[in-house]
Amino acid sequence: MNDILARLRELRSGDLPTHGGRTLAYVYDSGLSEVDEIAAAAHALASSANGLDPTAFPSLLRMENDLVARAAGLLGGTPETVGTVTSGGTESCLLAVLAARDARPDLAAPSIVLPETAHAAFHKAAHLFGVRKIVVPVDPDTFHADPAAMTAAIDDSTVLVVASAPSYAHGVVDPITEIAAAASARGVRMHVDACIGGWVLPYFAKLGADLPPFGFSVPGVTSISVDLHKYAYCAKGVSVLLHASAELRRTHYFASAAWPGYTMLNPTLQSTRSGGPLAAAWAVVHHLGEDGYLTLASRARAAVERIRVGVASIPGLRVLGDPVSTLIAFTGSDGFDLFTVADEMKGRGWYVQPQFAHGTSPLNLHLTVTAANHGSEPEFLADLAASVEAARAEGPVRVDPDVVAALDPETLTSEQFGGLLAAAGLTGGDGLPERMAPINALLAAAPEPLRERLLVEFLGALYTPSGP
């Protein structure tokens, strides 16, 4: 057993660090070691329990109802508010779309209205469930959803309107009140994607932040998603999808007696669900409590303010929009390459997330700031400034336009893709290059359909076993 665990530790040594606040994407770190310890212990106690049948494992039912009640309390829920614990934000968003679609079986071609900054999970939902997307441009300067444009996009086929609190890309909260009023006037459901902000923005408000309303206190809001594995600092993957009433929730449930086995009954897209993540989340939420979350929110708020001010003070960098949460996106001038800045930061022990240009949003670097970043802001900003200067000295990354022009996502062959991988220094498996700027520059130059196809092919190459 010790040999196996030693091997696992060796494998994990090549991963990005999940603690210490140096990975500013994908992970949410409270900075408190006991949180990991209690989560691991609780996970072990319940990992063999199966959420498929709550009558067989009533402990899971009790814990799920407790977490739903806590989330509803944070987000202005009423005694009628109900919810479901899911595997993550994407599943919560999928279920919100599914519930809205199946509530309108009379519509042959149902649609959802969403701002272009809405999370890609809603595009996935539209793809999986055969729902048309009506994507609405946002304000080009603030990146807020445009209430007038959203209102104009609602028609008789609309089953759901979506807004964000905050949007992932820029960290801004959409004008939920105006959009929800428009949806309500047309008798349409309104979903607020608060996967990132739902557990931290209410505490920001308690700390004095001036935030626009986005919860169930806003008339017309019918569902909200909030991830506990983000700013509730729980182990992955746990999210909660809240509905204003049981009637609204019912249509994402699934039941089938059309076979000789047990009658299948599922509140989520999954059937079998380990009790481990649920129990770990329940334990962490009860351990931290109201005072613990207020303290962690205070640390995260202080860190994000210091980093935002510091980023804006570095020559050539500009913060996008007016972020009010824990997310910051910043772009750069033409004098240096942001992908090179990301590589330089990684060389200094920090991971920052590149975001490609889309619509009016330019190429930028994205930061997810957590409580663990509190105290390390000066070091981060000094390394960021040094990385910008290094990128200036290195100059822009050049991409041969003929390489991109020669590729058609509809006819891309495995030979073409293999040649492109080899030219870029990507071989799949463990063959990732130390510096990603040339790869990212190539992807940025590719039209979005080609970029999607290239990344799908690359993902397939990564998930190809090389042998035992």
UniProtKB/TrEMBL annotation:
Highest taxon of the lineage: Bacteria
Q: Name one GO molecular function term.
A: transaminase activity
Entry-linked InterPro entries: GrpII_AminoAcid_Decarb, PyrdxlP-dep_de-COase, PyrdxlP-dep_Trfase, PyrdxlP-dep_Trfase_major, PyrdxlP-dep_Trfase_small
| Protein name (Swiss-Prot/TrEMBL) | Aspartate aminotransferase family protein
The entry's keywords: Aminotransferase, Antibiotic biosynthesis, Lyase, Pyridoxal phosphate, Transferase
Entries under Pfam families matching the protein: Pyridoxal_deC
The record's comment on protein family reads: Belongs to the group II decarboxylase family. Sphingosine-1-phosphate lyase subfamily.
| Organism lineage string | Bacteria, Bacillati, Actinomycetota, Actinomycetes, Pseudonocardiales
Cofactors, names only: pyridoxal 5'-phosphate
